[in-house]
# Entry
Amino acid sequence: MTDFKNTEKNIINLLYRSPFPLSTSEIASELQISWITANHYIKNLEKMGYVIGEVKGNSLIWKLRRTGEPRLPERKVKRIKGIWQPTTVKVERYIRRKPKRR
# Structure
């Protein structure tokens, strides 16, 4: 079992109670801590797999990771897909092409 620091517990409780994901600024404001402090603890929780960050417009919003959700943050999954998609498209085309007759 993980031993959480008080600020980490407060962030988890806040995200659990919130009906929608929150930005780092909203979390900091609600908990009356600095943005830097909130960001530090949120990043720790993300590394441990407890929260997921999603890009919405120009903001990064946070939500609790539910059972069964992927561990990778959505923004990293999108980046990985962006890197590999051209390669997978080429592989799919190669597989689908008709064999040459001899």
In short: The domain at 6-96 is CATH 1.10.10.10 (Arc Repressor Mutant, subunit A).
